C-alpha cells in the first residue's frame, strides 16, 4: 500500500472535518509499519497495515456513500491523494463484496487451487467451531 501522497494543491472544503481522524489513522499506520515483527510469521507482520488501510478506506466510503457527509470533490481528492483505495471501494459497491477485507482475497492467482481466499467462504459452509484466518490479511471471514 502506497504512502499518502499529498500534492501542493489545497485540500477541498470540508477536509478539516475529517482531517483529525485521518491523522490518527496515519499515526497508527506508522506505528504498525515500525512495529517489531519478532516471533511472527512473515505474513503476520503485514496484517496490521492491511487492517488500517481497510479502516481508512471504509471511513471515506461511509462518509460519502452511507452518511453523505462529504462532497464529491473531497471524495475524489481523497482518491487522487491515496488516502482511500478506489479499487477496494469499487468492489464494496458491488453485491456480495460489501464487507471485502482486501483485494488480495479475491485474486485467484494467489491461491493454490485458483479460487478465492478461505475468508470469502460463508461461515455457514464451514465446519462448526473451525476458526478460519486469511493468510494474506488476517481476516476471519469477510463473507458473512
UniProtKB/TrEMBL annotation:
Give the main localization category. Answer: nucleus
Q: Which residue positions does the secretion signal occupy? A: none
Give the organism, scientific name: Oikopleura dioica
Q: Which GO terms describe its cellular component?
A: spliceosomal complex
UniProtKB keywords: Coiled coil, Nucleus
Domain of life, per UniProt, equals: Eukaryota
Its recorded name reads Protein BUD31 homolog
Coiled-coil residues are: 15-42
Transmembrane intervals: none
Q: Which family does it belong to?
A: Belongs to the BUD31 (G10) family.
List locations, semicolon-separated. Nucleus
**Gene Ontology BP, a term:** mRNA splicing, via spliceosome
- Pfam entry (one): BUD31
Native organism taxonomy: Eukaryota, Metazoa, Chordata, Tunicata, Appendicularia
